[in-house]
Amino acid sequence: MVMSSSEIAPPWMYCHGHWRRSLAFLAMGACVAMTAASLWDMQVTAALIRWSQPDFNTIMGRTLFEGHLPGANDFSAIIWIAALVIYIGGSLKRNQTNRLARFRPQAGFVLASALIIALSMVHGLKYFVGRARPSLVLDEAWPYSLWFVFGPHTIAQGPFNASFPSGHTAQAFTLMSIAYLLAGNPLASKTQKRLGWLWGGLALLFTMAMGIARCASQNHWLTDVMGSICLGWLLMHWIYFGLLRVPDQHRHWAEHNRPPQLPWGWELMLCLDIFLIIAGAIMIAGSLRGVLGTGTLWHAWLIPSGAALIWVGARLFRLNRRSVSQALGQAQKEEKP
User: Fold this and answer.
1) pLDDT at 96
2) Considering the entire predicted model, what is its pTM?
3) How many angstroms separate the CA atoms of 48 and 238, rounded?
4) Which long-range contacts (CB under 8 A, 24 or more apart) does 63-72 make?
5) Per-residue pLDDT, 335
6) Structural domain boundaries of the chain?
7) pLDDT in the model for residue 152
8) d(CA 132, CA 119)
9) Per residue in 277-325, pLDDT tens?
């Protein structure tokens, strides 16, 4: 027997307008945090370097997947691998006989968070900002630049080795996705929600510890770490409620005892669409940087190619989002509180 939604949770849990308000509060908090961090960027980073603990920095920075001994970064990687296994298993036969299918929305959210935050956001911004790391500024007299100043210089080791934002910190922050799955589920029990808040607090502390280690080892500035946390949090909130609509998927299971009829691998397709848009923007920016830097026009051919990638990615993104909205139904209006 399938329970109706009114028998599972009170009506206020089905309102979607609240997530937009909380996203606005997160955005305001991020602005305040980044402004404060910018004022004390060099001072705090220099203090953390003076208080550096080499053993702690090494453990926090290394990972088994790079051929080193186990380290703190392995926690996120293990969760990503587990999510990938559940996602594939839950996608093979999405019906009542497949127990993994019920956990597929959660696994898709974890994977999408990792791909969009720890990969797309980090490497896309590294290319645009081109910020020198503290080791280059403090030891080799490279020019210091603020985190929001795009392209002040070219990084010698390549654009993906730039400082802003911190990739290790963004990877650690993706552990927060588990907190969203527990506390953000409208059908979760009070115990699950408490566990979600507890996990969220621990994930935030772990992310801060990772950021401290990255600053102390002269790999990142304070604003690199804060940028990963603030931007990652905003993106994760949007991915959970707006992009993938995970609560709506939970409600569909509760009301129909089956998954919504969505295209196979649609979460990864949305991530691919975002990759195409970012890749196109990078191509255009690289072309303009080359033309302005060398004075020659041979880089200009990347501009129409990048524009084409952006157009294709944006069009596919709209089509995939439309199919998601149609599958989950238009009765639940996100605009209404």
Assistant:
1) 52
2) 0.88
3) 32
4) 72/172, 72/206, 72/209, 72/210
5) 36
6) 5-260, 263-337
7) 63
8) 19
9) 999 998 888 888 777 766 567 677 888 999 999 999 999 999 999 888 8
Q: Are 317 and 243 in contact (CB under 8 A)?
A: no
Token code pair at residue 212: 């401290």
Residue 8, CA distances (Å) to 105, 114, 251 in order: 19, 31, 9
**Closest residue by Cα to residue 155 from 116, 125, 192, 181:** 125
Query: Contact at 8 Å (CB) between 108 and 87?
Result: yes
Task: Identify the pLDDT of residue 92.
Answer: 78
Please check whether residue 60 is in contact with residue 214, taking contact to mean a CB–CB distance below 8 angstroms.
Answer: yes
Which token pair is 11? 């009506």
Q: CA 25, CA 31: separation in Å to the nearest integer?
A: 10
* Low-confidence spans in the chain with pLDDT less than 70: 1-17, 67, 93-98, 151-160, 293-296, 298, 330-337
| Confidence at residue 6, expressed as pLDDT on a 0 to 100 scale | 38
Distances (CA, A) of 334 to 23, 192, 245, 323: 13, 24, 10, 16
**What is the model's pLDDT at position 287?**
82
Amino acid occupying residue 103: F
